[in-house]
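**User:** My hope is that you can spare some time for a protein that puzzles me. I have put the entry right below:
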Amino acid sequence: MESPRLAPRTTVSTEIDQAVTDLWPRLVDWRRHLHRHPELSFRERETARYIGDHLSALGLDVAFPVPTAVVGRLRTGRPGPTLALRADIDAIAVTEDSGLDYASVNPGVMHACGHDGHVAVLLGVASVLHRLRDLLRGEIRLIFQHGEEQVPSGAPELVEAGVLDGVQAIIGQHLWAPLEVGRVCVRPGPLMASTDYFEVLVHGKGGHAGLPHQTVDPLAVAAQVVTSLNHLVARETDPQDSLVVSVTRFHAGETINVIADRAALGGTIRALDERVRQAAPGRIERVVHGVAEAFGARAEVSFRFGPPAVDNDRALVDSVAEAVRRQLGEDALTHYTPVMGGDDFSFYQQHVPGVYLLVGAGVPGADNPPHHHPAFRLDERALAHAARVLADAAAWFCDRERGADDG
């Protein structure tokens, strides 16, 4: 079979390829250890300690800006740029049902989004770049971030702690099960949506279920709110604008023959364009209050605002795409439409240019369970693919010879 076309390789690229091959068993071991021992957002103390121990063993400068996050600094001792690489480290509240022999030993907690793999990849990149540090200039800053899965999340806390001080650019990646292993998506512009949350409380007038005319049924009003929110997306939003409003929770009453006084619902708002995102809360409030008033009820609406959309810098996308070509071949690059899930990597992009890529981790020909599913699993070959690409992109950014040519 004809080998994939590779972009011209530098000495560093070839060294990275071999270094990741040598490191492969450790990548798997790291990932499986972390998979067995997941920790929830903002509770990642043992995970952080595990990461810190490995970085310290390499001789990197290690800091804990908060007790559940780690930053390692690979300083080359030569003048040059500072590039940050980020991995999220938290697990989620899911009871694992994967059948893996390294399944979670912590009841009700699972690495069901691949963050165990993200940590293993970045530990691998740290090892590879430390091995090749004499070929580099500047600094590689390795950010192992806590609390990605929650709102508020960990990224703003780390930015406030100064992890981006002196950084010129940042790169992150997500091992992506919907994408077959061996494929990589790196695209300019929006890649993942903003993620915000809304809560609605409808106040009516309760009463006997057999006498509905004497009540103001908040459940019926809330149901009309749900329908009207769907109309807001389907008929009030430009089809070329991506907006998703999903009602994910609905509750009213406790007794079967009683119309309740109140009904509650909540959900998420997702958008790729900041203009659309900023307009959504006002539009939702208008719909909710209008429906409630029309039926003689009263409503309260509240919002929690999460990360903005992940929006990739074009120049960085081009350089990372070249790293994919050098390490995996032209055929590895794939088109992938923006994802309406979110990631707080976008908070870093508000401060420095950044690129976030999706690295295929789906088992070929298999029915891969989605992220956050109890049976979620990864094709572990993706660990090596991601480590090669990130290390190559970082080495290019901080390449010693390129720096001499530029200067």
